[in-house]
Design a protein that fits this description.
Chain lengths: 348, 348
């Protein structure tokens, strides 16, 4: 089996690749599990060293739109101008995207990276006629609260998305394209809406939600961190492990298990920024929370406050997916997985 | 004031133009009404003779995508390669579309006519920076019933669309684009979901819903007509007059009246095919219903049966919009408006 991961050098893509390589086999759309012989990571950036060293891993480095247009022949495998990588893919995890903050600041970037690239990818596999399983990473950002149209208290599987950001609109459009290309039989698509992923290791990205990880990661490293929204701000969190679990389950579920072509809300832990800070203090003491800079950032608040904090995800539960137990457990998992990134004395 | 109507030579576009010309003035987004000095009809087909003869009417004939790309210089005004028509538009009614049956049969046609053209139109006005009022005609076809995801009994303003046709998907994507281009301040967009329009005069089009008009229009003309779905088939009907009323109201409503950027479901009369036939018989006798050919058409049934028949349109009601009183009244209005098309003896 050959698997392609777009955005495969990013944090989630790389973690997904490691998870797939570790399990060695994957079931696609309810079929018996097969051995994973190759994973191709398509990304602007080269893959992390551990993945690059795995003989089962290929990398294609460059702009996804250019790759799909066939003029991106700068990859380690001579590029994909000949479509080989797409033609041979049994499953595609489409994670490549510009993030929320970037898309709000640069409308054209978002339309190109999230809207045009997703459309081009779908047209590519349609033209090839290979009908791969395609898992599309959408986002809770399709839900947006506004004064004219307040969100319900709890988001359910059938709640109407009313995106209040360009990122949310572009992801929601991607879901619609995946649904229709699937209905037409061009691809076997599954759209999953990722929750706010925390704690992300590594460097901050341009996402408006970035501080939800930074406010934990940086203090644990002994560094100051911005936490620019009020304590009461609700947030629907999922750990990296739970998030990757959702992506893999989307690929493996049979059509009957998966159900409608509407995107699936992944499970999330309903918490608040204040409770996250309290959990940080329980794990790492006052020395950690003393590093939080609570100066408000109006631009980030404006985006984040439109997102919902509470989900009731019956459909995901029926697929065997569950939320993290507590945010404290999420932090402890991060500490366990990233010992080198934890510098604050007394945390283990 | 200059108004552009895409699809302006079609039945609805022409009727909208006649209505606007008759009222002579239009209020845009709550502003005081102003005199309509020019209406430009953009369409593949030339406009009807009565409109072409009006000194306030211009016509640009050709493919909308080509017009927007600036290479459609085949219009009566020397084409729009210089963008003048778009630059001078205070309001744009975007009605041009490929219809449901066509889009199901020819996926690329639908993507080009409904998806790419709507996107190109929005990018055009964004580039010009003129912020016109843009009324986008979406459709009840964004709602689709399926075994995996049954529609609720009654569609409300916040019901989640789950389109089951490419046409429905493309219209729903158009709504999302209009919403985000509006939020960003590139255009003042309003999306309205048209109901099944009946009785359409003139010739049948490629819409799967075409028989909802044909089953009335053709018998009244003394001609046989297909009625290829069961009597119990529910349908949400609006007369041409009510439909145009909704389009005009969308343009004139202030932002506060309009409310959220989510598309507006226009009012509809909840009826059934059987009740429509019964109304025809009350107006035109058994001689009319005897002309109905009830041979089932599986392709049409497959599309039509996914559409909802019952709407509760609180938001439209608050805007002062109402459904037709009865389907019998709708037929009598058609007879009154189209005396030359009624040939069956004894109908007046």
């Amino acid at each position: 089996m050959h698997i392609v991961i777009t955005g495969g050098a990013g944090f989630l893509g790389a973690r997904l690749a490691r998870t797939l390589l570790a399990q060695g086999r994957l079931s696609l759309a309810g079929a018996p599990a097969q051995t994973i012989r190759r994973i191709t990571l398509v990304d602007r950036a080269p893959p992390p060293a551990d993945l690059a060293a795995d003989p089962r891993v290929d990398a294609i480095t460059g702009d996804l739109n250019a790759q799909l247009a066939g003029d991106g022949a700068d990859g380690a495998n001579g590029g994909v101008a000949d479509d080989t990588v797409w033609r041979e893919a049994h499953a595609i995890f489409h994670l490549a995207a510009a993030v929320s903050g970037e898309c709000e600041a640069d409308f054209d970037l978002g339309m190109r990276s999230n809207f045009a690239a997703t459309h081009a990818l779908l047209e590519k596999v349609r033209a090839l006629g290979t009908r791969p399983v395609l898992v599309f990473s959408s986002s809770l950002a399709v839900f947006g609260d506004s004064p004219e149209q307040p969100l319900p208290q709890v988001i359910e599987d059938h709640t109407l998305p009313t995106p209040q950001t360009s990122y949310g609109i572009q992801k929601f459009i991607g879901e619609q394209l995946v649904a229709d290309f699937t209905r037409k039989g061009f691809v076997r698509g599954r759209s999953v809406r990722l929750m706010t992923v925390s704690v992300r290791p590594g460097k901050p990205n341009g996402a408006a939600s970035g501080f939800f990880s930074g406010m934990i990661r940086e203090p644990l490293a002994g560094l100051p961190a911005a936490c620019p929204v009020p304590d009461a701000t609700p947030v629907a969190i999922a750990s990296p492990a739970r998030t990757v679990e959702g992506l893999v389950r989307a690929a493996s579920a049979s059509d009957a298990e998966w159900g409608p072509r509407t995107a699936l809300n992944l499970p999330s832990l309903a918490t608040t920024v204040g409770d996250m800070a309290a959990a940080l203090e329980r794990v790492a003491g006052k020395a950690a929370t003393a590093l939080l800079d609570r100066t408000p950032d109006a631009a980030i608040q404006r985006i984040v406050k439109t997102w919902p904090g509470h989900f009731e995800t019956a459909r995901a539960r029926a697929l065997g997916l569950a939320a993290d137990e507590s945010f404290e457990a999420v932090i402890r998992e991060y500490v366990r997985e990233n010992p080198d990134a934890v510098k604050l004395p007394g945390v283990a």
